[in-house]
């Protein structure tokens, strides 16, 4: 079981908000030095944490009163507080934010407005949409990056046409399509909402169409979504309508490649193989069903596909093998299985990175146990942790991006040259000086032999770079020890 580290800032910690703190408790926590404005590395802060925890409006108002928590502050994925509150149906907070200048025309990093993000999240409270529309949101114009309007995004979550009728009164056509030619049936197929699929068919909605990318409802259904994959009953229903399960898009994707990533049901894998899809057929990026399964699926599915897989060491267009992607994304047991079945450990990707790079680059404090288990396997199979990676980076230079001293200490045993420069002329100490927010890692690197006198190709010293680091300035860190 993965351990989830608590946030040192209590105002961003789920455990703190799970206790349903009162306004006075929150105020006292601020007085103790916990920042109400500071963002995590993922872009979340005290206000977003309060919104997710459904905290009382007065608490959110208090947190919004601090300089640095403007109503239009950008948080995770470029989203303002209006995105989070509207998508969660918090009408009271939505109205407060709108009354205090929250903009409805901000587009997040994924290409969505607050209206589109709210619909994509499955929000069915029409008063939320009324509030956004009253401030200028336009349901007929606002769309996702793929050209999907609010109704296309919302309908997979519905069980009847009540909300559909609402959007139609606002001018949204039930027969509308996105930029690729996908309508409500394809979007609903992705969610596997059989109840709504059947109602759409009964309503006369076109279902057996090929979009501009060569895809149909089977492509959408096979994609599944975050945390779920569709069952065999969905595919049987689609086939009963005369839709072709053996379909390939213009980018070479077929349903088998998609389900290989997400289904836990061997019957689904076998269904598409029986429909004539080649289990070794790669998409345009060079990924086969086996490679996709090794990246993200469980061992049972991987072993099942292995029976049909012709080459365990096949690499995709990026030079990544099944083992490469398993090291980066999957569990130690999958890595062990591939190694035991003669997967090449010396595989190098198209940019010059070996398996040790993928291990270190995937390091996550929430999943340390998995990291160390995979590291043990790679060491046992003699993967070279001292090898230069892409752009002449050592693993130290890859690891420094994580700003985790435990990871740096893990690399000590490999005796990697700590003073090597990458193609940009930067050592790990240079990179640390530009990224850290305190002196802990800098002093650790010096203890390990990092040379503070080395300069960049622009003749900048480590001290110079530290002087330009805004985080060190903000935290009033004395960097004279770098002179």
TrEMBL record:
SMART domains: ANK. Coiled coil: none annotated. This is Uncharacterized protein. ANK repeats lie at residues 77-109, 110-144, 180-212, 285-317, 318-350, 424-457. Keywords: ANK repeat. It comes from Pseudalgibacter alginicilyticus. SUPFAM superfamilies: Ankyrin repeat.
